[in-house]
Amino acid sequence: MNNLTATSNPLKNSERLLILTPLARFYDEYFDNLLKLNYPRNLIDLGFITPKTHAGNIATLKLQDALRKVQHGPKKSRFNKITILRQDFGTPTGQSEKERHAMNAQKDRRASMARARNSLVFTTLNPTISWVLWLDSDIIETPPSLFQDLAKHNKQVIVPNCFQRYKENGVWKERPYDFNSWQDSETALNLGKTMKDDEILLEGYAEMPTYRALMAYQRDEKADKHVEMLLDGVGGTALLVKASIHRDGAMFPTFPFYHLIETEGFAKMVRRLGHQPYGLPNYLVYHYNE
Amino acid sequence: MNNLTATSNPLKNSERLLILTPLARFYDEYFDNLLKLNYPRNLIDLGFITPKTHAGNIATLKLQDALRKVQHGPKKSRFNKITILRQDFGTPTGQSEKERHAMNAQKDRRASMARARNSLVFTTLNPTISWVLWLDSDIIETPPSLFQDLAKHNKQVIVPNCFQRYKENGVWKERPYDFNSWQDSETALNLGKTMKDDEILLEGYAEMPTYRALMAYQRDEKADKHVEMLLDGVGGTALLVKASIHRDGAMFPTFPFYHLIETEGFAKMVRRLGHQPYGLPNYLVYHYNE
């Protein structure tokens, strides 16, 4: 705030980063990857929010345990500040892969996720923070320089491409995972116009083809990792936001906002605030495979 | 967050209050009134945001000076925490009474005010806070029990009636001042439907009659001070909000949101989040008379 900068070279200015993670389950791989990030820990605040459920209690205990192991030694090698919030509202549906993606459960689930994200950012963003990196608890593999690589683009909002590794006939392969980063289509916009105020557009369902240009499908393995594309919707599995954008009011709508909610609604809000979200189709982070 | 409460009797639960003030000018009367509030200071955080202008520098210095005078002695008699932010964006227009109310300047001015409010709340709301009291820097007289009186109603969002004292022929009188607290009208809603996405409805201009029911005109001097009315728009000169509502995502739109911005857009957002704002037409706070 007070002479804060958020530049393409954060380290040079000792810019502070807040990493925010809504954490329903604790994966060792998520935490190991977090520890591998090579931005100085003393410039990083961590914020987590966990549900007040049995599974949430277990996740919280595991998280606290893991954090205890790293938060000792000289102050310079510790995270600057850690906040763990407990969600004081329920999560609406089960969390198995199948349940999570059933279309009629999506709206409630994503509204609840948006609420968790809002609680996190409203509660942990302090005056010293320049950048907010949203990193979901099921992101288990990223380049160690994830933050610096994204910040280098000096965008208000930027999102890498989220893939998933899987084994087929004993061979490791990878496939697109997060379909919430897209460029809008006439079809989707027109669909929106016919909808009631409270209906939402969802991506990735055969019964509602949007013909949006999905970043997930635009990866070119051989091309430059730093190729940018303009986005109208963004996913939140990994998402870098300049703190000033949140401070200007950008939050995650829990209600249909131009027929969009959560991170997709967030991208629309960013655009209403006069900014352009970007994506990096060839820069990958990897999602847990359940 | 973590087992926080926000009840009709905040003192009983030692609930923490955050008082937020966008401060363009420093009035002694504002500060004196702030000091007269009789909720325990050690349960109160203060947050201010001042513009980065010459006038803003002066206001900041005066504020710091005034705060220094009260922040000594036993910890129990001091405010728990004080944050002063400097606005890293301009204020669009002059600030004289006449300039402030010119209709075409309103939109920019209120968008800028919304941005200041968002910066404040996103940056100062920490996990211990139960309540947020918005109190403008030109509110110079309130009952000392303002917070407790409003909290007693146990509403998500509640707003008193903002009046102004003035002298006429040597006699002190009072008149309504803030016209942003209202119940919607068919006329205004229909007007909204004919508007472009980026146009806004404003209250208090002859050239755009809305026929909304303004709380400003519904004061009954002889009636109970605690009579409630439902509101669709709220003003922000004094405004009590449960912190959980902000955490759920309620912010002050800087862009037209259902053709409303700033505190009026905030009220619409609160309604989109499923809550009902209330007003107290007979409970008065007083605005500075320029």
Automatic annotation (TrEMBL), chains A, B:
Keywords: Glycosyltransferase, Golgi apparatus, Membrane, Signal-anchor, Transferase, Transmembrane, Transmembrane helix. It is found in: Golgi apparatus membrane. One of its GO terms (biological process) is cell wall mannoprotein biosynthetic process. It is a single-pass type II membrane protein. GO terms for cellular component: mannan polymerase complex. GO terms for molecular function: alpha-1,6-mannosyltransferase activity. It comes from the Eukaryota. Belongs to the ANP1/MMN9/VAN1 family. PANTHER family: MANNAN POLYMERASE COMPLEXES SUBUNIT MNN9, MANNAN POLYMERASE II. This is Golgi mannosyltransferase complex subunit. It comes from Orbilia oligospora (Nematode-trapping fungus).
